[in-house]
Amino acid sequence: MDYEKEASKILDSKGHKPSRPQVLSLMGDIVNDLYDEVYADIKKEEPKLTSIEMQRGALDFTFKKLSVIKMDEWRKSFETNGYVKMFSPVVGEFFYLCRDEIFDSIKDRFEEVIYMASELPALKELEAEDIQCLHMGKKVMRGSILL
After folding, report:
1. In a domain, 37, yes or no
2. CA distance 114 to 47
3. Is 146 part of any domain?
């Protein structure tokens, strides 16, 4: 038995609606507007879902859409500037990814570690701990990974 779903059904039947997801308070108007639209669509298309299930569906869709939007922004920035700032959950820090040919011209411009595009394939086969060690080395030495 899915107790959460049953509890949600009972609360819905009594007219209680869950409060707006707190994570949305950290987001801007565009994200909140997208969430509201998606929530309304789900409510109309799947009225048998509980309000919590509708919220989850709307949040999932909103964050997937944001990932696509962010990827487009990164791609445009990389094409235009030759570099892009990203976050790595593996090292827990922001870093820059740049085209190989501009590495020398920007390596001292930013505080964060800078990876050349050619270095990333070498990292794919490594364990998280090894990537963290390499990252620390790049952070201290401000250089490139010898491939």
Report:
1. yes
2. 49
3. no
Taking residue 32's Cβ as centre, other Cβ atoms within 10 Å add up to 14
C-beta neighbour count of 132 within 10 angstroms: 16
- Tokens representing residue 80 in the block: 């235009």
What pTM value is reported for the model?
0.55
The one-digit pLDDT tens for each residue of the chain (147 residues) are 565 666 666 766 777 666 677 667 656 677 788 889 999 999 999 988 888 889 889 988 887 877 666 777 778 888 899 998 887 878 888 889 999 999 999 988 999 999 998 888 888 778 889 989 989 988 888 777 765
Q: Number of structural domains, the chain?
A: 2
Q: What is the Cβ-side half-sphere exposure of residue 79, based on CA atoms within 13 angstroms?
A: 6
